[in-house]
Amino acid sequence: MPQPRSSRPTQRDIAELAGVSITTVSHVVNGTRAVAESTKAAVLRAIEATGYTGDAIARSLVTGGTRSIGMAISLVANPYFATLMQAIEREASEHGYTVLLADTHDAADTERETVRALRSRRVDGLLITPAPGDGPVIGELVSLDVPTVLIDRLSTRTDVDQVGSENIQATSALTAHLATLGHRRIGMISGVPGLSTSEERVLGYRLGLGRSGLTWSSELVACGNSSREGGALALSTLLALPEPPTALVVGNDSMMVGVLHEARRRGLRIGRDLPVVVYDDVEWADLVDPPLTTMAQPIEEIGRQAVRLLLARINDPARKAETVRLPPTLRHRESCGCPPVHSHQ
Amino acid sequence: MPQPRSSRPTQRDIAELAGVSITTVSHVVNGTRAVAESTKAAVLRAIEATGYTGDAIARSLVTGGTRSIGMAISLVANPYFATLMQAIEREASEHGYTVLLADTHDAADTERETVRALRSRRVDGLLITPAPGDGPVIGELVSLDVPTVLIDRLSTRTDVDQVGSENIQATSALTAHLATLGHRRIGMISGVPGLSTSEERVLGYRLGLGRSGLTWSSELVACGNSSREGGALALSTLLALPEPPTALVVGNDSMMVGVLHEARRRGLRIGRDLPVVVYDDVEWADLVDPPLTTMAQPIEEIGRQAVRLLLARINDPARKAETVRLPPTLRHRESCGCPPVHSHQ
DNA sequence: TCCTGACACGCAAGCGTTTGCGCAACGCTT
DNA sequence: AAGCGTTGCGCAAACGCTTGCGTGTCAGGA
Hints:
The structure is a homodimer. By secondary structure, chain A is α/β, with parallel strands linked by helices. In chain A, 42% of the residues lie in helices and 15% in strands. Chain A is built from twelve helices and twelve strands. Chain A has a six-stranded parallel sheet with strand order 2-1-3-4-5-11, sandwiched between helices. Chain A has a six-stranded mixed sheet with strand order 7-6-8-9-10-12, with helices on both faces. In chain A, helix 8 runs parallel beside helix 9. The longest helix of chain A has 17 residues. The radius of gyration of chain A is 26 Å and the shape is elongated. Chain A starts with 10 loop residues before the first helix and ends in a 14-residue tail after the last strand. Chain B binds a DNA duplex through helix 2 and helix 4. Chains A, B: Keywords: DNA-binding, Repressor, Transcription, Transcription regulation. Chains A, B: It holds the Pfam family Peripla_BP_3.
């Protein structure tokens, strides 16, 4: 007689079937105490027969933990999001954790809600890319002792774990590269204001200028708002200058797409007419003409480290906060104006 | 005196603070029955004061539902994954659902585990991109009455909800387009065998050939395994033919990347020397030279529909299964060998 | 004055687990 | 024959919530 399969088997069902108490069932499932071989076998048989899976919800209620982590991330804003996510999921699941996904839309109030929702689901910890001007939310998380790690957009506080890539030195290197090529007027297209990444990259740009003996001029940095459209607009702005830049540092890949479009529309040849380097590598960087010189973030590593940090904190809440800065790597191709290098494929 | 904030406030805390029973707290939180204005106000004040969020876990235990759906998806295999995911998350959260993410790695046994894990977390429903040769898993889900919708890779069964894009007619159109350009030997690079999408696209290719009065020849389709490397290899295979194809249909975007690389390596000019069309559009399709003629899947719409179907089934398990096929749209650019069209930007 | 309905609320029984105690049975040692 | 450490297991109390019943109060109709 087929069970009224409408509802899943519970420990009690297994217990009855195996002729033991639910206590015993629990213990064989979790291996929490010695159980006679014969009994264990009977229980396992019953489990097999019914397809019993256990109930994570009920277990969580009593243990307190959920073995799940929440990802409050800005899906829109993160171009390399898929890769990041994949790395995070992999690392988490390898440690037996499930990932709850929620989009912050990069807005402070959605972020609030999102975090609330995740917390009410009792996630053991939170991974989050702080929205611009978020401040209070992460402050609250910290003071509530919610295990949290910030990704990508790092904050200046030192009481929270965070991992992101190094922006200043990297952008400086990008800028300096253009300078060594002889450029004196190097422009920059910067990202959404208020984001630490945007600001650090501008800082890096200025640093690179300084190191190359060039002076900074505010008119040479145009904000592209981290978007395609913004990038295109910013390029126009820069080009409209009485004395336009002769080379460009672009703050992220989305803006680069805009730059590429706008350049084509104007018949401007990247690399020849206008050397460009960009922070962020993309899959197609070497497929366009000319191939793009980029700064590639170690995305996978960022994801992995974020999860590691989070799990470490979950297991030891007293642990002191850590900030991890991973260095991106320069992918030297041709959009900077350098001649083709030999591809090592 | 600060609470021992170690553990979150519960309904009981609120009840005490507001001087009511937990029953009342529950009812004001859920709006499940009339509560005097003054009482309600007191409760709300207490909630505000403590930062009470409710406990989804405990609630789930009693209600049975979790207001969450599981996404068992192949992160690696889905190139447009980020977009899909975003659409799904948005639609789900708009309906008050949270998304649990799990990677199937596109392997049948990981898929099994993944689904088990998700189910033990009591997700209300499952979104899944079936791994090649999965069969049994979705069979089990169906017979267990677990609300499920298949995405992208559709099965032939009619007792399960599914949504994906139309492959046959679309690929046929792509192929026919090359034929109208005068090509008689049109090759195809196909995806991982055993995937419905791969097979349908090959079918569409043959259909397009037939409709154009061309006959099919097995040597003209090379399997590129849906990967970059595979695509490059497949191109080599095809080119090594005694009588190589004069134009190419590529089965997905990853393989196209491989094709582009391999073509460049050989100094082959896509479009001029070898016209190519590809199923799947990519962000950079119009940034390469020549811009790619592609078939763009309505990814957002797929995600939305998938969630809608799933929620519909959750709310009415007796509902009869539905299969949704969304038509992709041709993005006619230049890699097919056609002259530049005027961009409408 | 008594009855009735509407309104406001509380009691307590679960939901499916985990886990601290406790008890029985068994073999050994003295 | 009594005492004792082991081994193997069950009882029952949580965990934080929802919800079917009840109970008490108060206003209005008879």
